[in-house]
Amino acid sequence: MRQWRAAESTHPIDRVRKNARVTPANSTERVRVPPRPVQGLFIVGTALAVWWPAFTIGAWGTLFFDQLLTVWVISTAACLIVLVQPRPAHHRIRRAIALGIPSIWLFLSFFTDPGDDELLVIVDLLAIFIAVTGLPLTLWVMLKLFWPEAMGRMPKRLTVAAVVIVGGIAIGSFALGANHRLFLTCEDFAISGNSEPPGCVKAGVE
C-alpha cells in the first residue's frame, strides 16, 4: 500500500520552527535575555542629568539654587503620585521616603544658622547628594511605576556598566568645570547666561 507523505514546507517561518530547540521549563540551561532598550535610555538620561551639577561644583565650587529646586519640584510631584497609587503600603512608603529626601533638605535649609558649621556641612553634603542623584532616582522610580515590564530587573553587568558610565561622566564633568580656564573664557559663561566663575580667562588675554 502506497504511503503518501506531505511535501516539506519551504517557508522561512516553518524552517525556523523545525530547527528551533524547545528548552524545558526545568532545564538548567541559561536562557539569554534580550537587552532592554529602556534601561540603556535610563543610563543615558542619568548621565545627562548629572553632568551639569558636577560641572558647576567644579567651576563655581557650589550648586545653583535652581538646580536644587528643580529636583525638589520633580521629586515632590513624583512622591505624591507614588502615595496615591493603589499599591502595597510598604512599596509606596519606601519610594516615598526616597523621593522625599529633597524636601528634607529644603526643611533643614530654613533652620540653618550661618554660624552652625556642622549643620551647614550636613546641608551642603545633602544638597550635593540631591543634585547628583535626585533626578536619576526620580526617573528610575517613575519608570518602575508606570513601565515596570520595560525596566525589569537590571542585569548585574548592566548595573556595573551604568555605575561606571555615570560615575565617569560625573567625574569628567567635575574635572572640566575645575579646569574651565583651559578651554572656556569669561565671555563664554556670560553669553550663556551664567556668572563668571572664579579664575576664568578674559578673551584675548593670556
Structure description:
This protein is 66% helix and 0% strand. It is mainly alpha-helical. It has one domain (36-191). α2 (37-60) runs antiparallel to α6 and α5 packs antiparallel against α6. The chain is globular.
Question: Concise description?
Answer:
Helices cover 66% and strands 0% of the residues.
Contiguous uncertain segments of 5+ residues: 15-35
Strand content: under 5%
Helical stretch count?
9
Q: How many structural domains can be distinguished in the coordinates?
A: 1
Mean pLDDT: 77
Task: Please bin the fraction of helical residues.
Answer: 55-70%
Compute the separation of the termini in Å.
101 Å
Task: Provide the fold topology.
Blueprint: H1 12-19, H2 37-60, H3 65-84, H4 89-99, H5 101-110, H6 117-146, H7 148-151, H8 156-178, H9 186-191
Descriptors for this entry?
single chain, 206 residues, mainly alpha
